[in-house]
Amino acid sequence: MKKLLLFLVAFVAIFALAGCTETTTTAATTAGTTAATTQTLKIFQNKVEIDEALTAYATAWGTANDVDVEVVTCGGDSCAYGTQILAEFQTADQPDIFVIEGMGGYNDYSDYILSLEGEAWLSDTDLEFRVDGTAYGFPVSVEGWGMGYNADILDAAGVDPADLTSLAAYQTAFAAIQSYYDTEGMTDYAVVSMAAGSGMTWVTGLHNFNGYLSAGLTYGDSTVIDELNAGVADASRLTAYADWVELLFDYADETVLLEGTYDTQVNLFASGHAAFIHQGNWIDPNLVAYFDENGGEFDMGYAPHAAAAGTNDSIFVAAPSYYVINTNSDVKDVAKAFLQDLASTTAGAEYIVNEAGMVPAFNSITLSPSGPLSSALVEWMQAGKMYSWWQNDMPSGFGMETLGPIYTSFANGDLTKAQFIAAITDEIESLA
Predict the structure, then answer these.
(1) Residue 132 CB-density burial (10 A; 0-12 exposed, 13-18 middle, 19+ buried)
(2) Backbone dihedral region of 156: left (phi > 0), alpha (psi from -120 to 50 degrees) or beta?
(3) Is there a shared CATH topology between the 2-142+320-365 domain and the 145-317+386-429 domain?
(4) How would residue 3 be classed by pLDDT, with cut points 50, 70 and 90?
(5) What confidence score (pLDDT) does residue 299 get?
(6) Number of C-beta neighbours around residue 162 at 10 A
């Protein structure tokens, strides 16, 4: 966490100066060359929203370097990355590059992860993934999330997003927005677009639950995650957190909440029919694509999650995922070259920022993201208003597979709030 703080200082200075639904496989080949290629690089990644951009970059890189590059994407609401990557390791065609998310992923796949110590790109970032001092992971990007909001709807309802720093403020704001809808006859509009169904437990059991782990705490404060991993639940903190979850569920579009996919959740917001969305800046490519096809672009930004008692004045920011190289790969040098070029070339920077719409994790990249939520994220980073990401430091599967179904039951009305709190408490204490 100290490294991220140092990086953010450099990041702010740079920008001040610079003013699956299912697994998808695509191949990048060296079409037009006279000689057959002799090497193949397989990349297995989990970000559905960057599949097209990553494939295009990989195609161009493969053509320039006489390498066949295959990008396999597994993520979203119906392709379980953790399950599928394990299956990939059992085949003869294992990925050469794959993705981990923090210590949970490292602990699961450590036998397959090559040390990247000594790589040149390490000197250009403070956000590499390390274990016991050794570098293993290449940071994909900097990401963040808060409550994404439609500024036009908030303005029409008389809500100032700057006031949204507490549960009480959100209660007042949500009620005002619903009243505005009712007065204007806007029956197909929702206050919140959020999914909590069985295929979307990463939204609830990981991202939303991170509010319990870090909201209101100084950046890098690991007190709550350390207690959780020791099997200790903070009763008062969990109660305040449950109040926030209840409020979100009460004002969420019911169909999206109970049955929604990633696309339906994002599209409800992109269509201008939801005041808030519970997602991060990674949805920028989806938003831009929607606006390009349908029009209707609107101003948006982030407000904090009111997940902790008292004042919540920050959003969640981190470098959450990392490319790693498979120790079983026959093309380790090719994989290393791909990552190095991604970090250090103009084409790599263009892909990261302008094509994939991501916030770069490398100090030398001075391009500024143009996506609406990525731009909002940069503003929060520049202001130093950040809470940590700890959800990836929970035991593997604990967020999505253990906690996720509890949220689904709560959303369905099968659990009361007291039962929701008790169920989460029981699962945390089972870790002791």
Answers:
(1) exposed
(2) alpha
(3) yes
(4) low
(5) 97
(6) 9
Query: In sequence order, which residues have a C-beta less than 8 Å from that of residue 352 and are 6 or more positions away?
Result: 141, 342, 358, 360, 365, 367
| Identity of the residue numbered 294 | N
Would you state the structure tokens that stand for residue 247, as one six-digit string? 């409020």
pLDDT at 9: 44
Report the distance separating Cα 385 and Cα 262, nearest Å.
27
133 Ramachandran zone, left/alpha/beta (phi>0; psi -120 to 50): left
Nearest-5° angle of CA 221, CA 224, CA 225? Answer: 90
Instruction: Please give the class, per CATH, of domain 145-317+386-429.
Output: alpha beta
CB under 8 A, 24+ apart: contacts of 295-299: 296/270, 296/271, 296/272, 298/150, 298/151, 298/152, 298/272, 299/150, 299/151, 299/152, 299/372
Closest to 212 in 3D by CA, of 389, 429, 4: 389
Query: Tokens at residue 201, please?
Result: 């437990």
Q: What is the pLDDT of residue 414?
A: 98
Amino acid at 231: G
Sort strands 39-45 and 67-73 into parallel, antiparallel or unpaired: parallel
Can you list the alpha helix ranges (DSSP code H) found in 297-401?
332-344, 346-349, 372-382
| Domain 2-142+320-365 in CATH 1.10.8.60 | no
Question: Do 214 and 389 form a contact (C-beta atoms < 8 A)?
Answer: yes
| Number of Cβ within a 10 Å radius of residue 397 | 15
